[in-house]
């Protein structure tokens, strides 16, 4: 899902020394709470979603209690390294840049990026056709970075603090299209707000590995999370969670 080019420099300066949290009876899990269907806050104020169900299943497998802690996306890596929580389960992409600041578990799903736009639009996603278009994406994500790296000289890029705000501007006509994770777009297109919109073109980035981030050198927690992930895949718990949100496998 999400890439970042700026906050990592601050994050690196706050790196922890790798003290493991495994021995604790409770693990604090950092997430955004604004990225449906993966993490969101429901009408009752509870944090829910695919990421949260995966985190709870992993904690149950490790026989520890999970406490979910929300954080703004821009500050989530510095918050991890400041020990406000023990791991990040927030649909975070593995990137070389992030590896300077955190360690990652094995991936727990694979994503891809795809444009959406109004059904009434003839938006084409090749570079020549996109010239002069206004395209939105969430700030500090793979989508935002991909736009800057690949289309920065062609389109006007608008970046938003949350994915929801990108969709709001798409709905109001302030942008011609939005680039985001396919599964997040898929969820929005099913909603009343998204029913007049559709995918455009093919995915532009289709091997985005999503994993859990932990503090650098916390090898013990990383290993236990990897073992727990394998266990919930093998025993069918992962599939049960997957099927709750998607009619296809995202593993």
UniProtKB/TrEMBL annotation:
Q: What is its main location?
A: other
Gene3D superfamilies associated with the record: Periplasmic binding protein-like II (3.40.190.10)
The protein's location, in the record's own words, is: Cell envelope
Keyword list (alphabetical) reads: Signal
Family, as annotated: Belongs to the bacterial solute-binding protein 3 family.
Indicate the segments forming the Solute-binding protein family 3/N-terminal domain, all copies: 26-249
A single GO cellular-component term from the record reads:
cell envelope
Q: What is the name attached to this protein's record?
A: Amino acid ABC transporter substrate-binding protein, PAAT family
PANTHER family under this entry?
Answer: ARGININE-BINDING EXTRACELLULAR PROTEIN ARTP, MEMBRANE-BOUND LYTIC MUREIN TRANSGLYCOSYLASE F
Signal sequence: where? 1-23
Record PROSITE patterns: SBP_BACTERIAL_3 (PS01039)
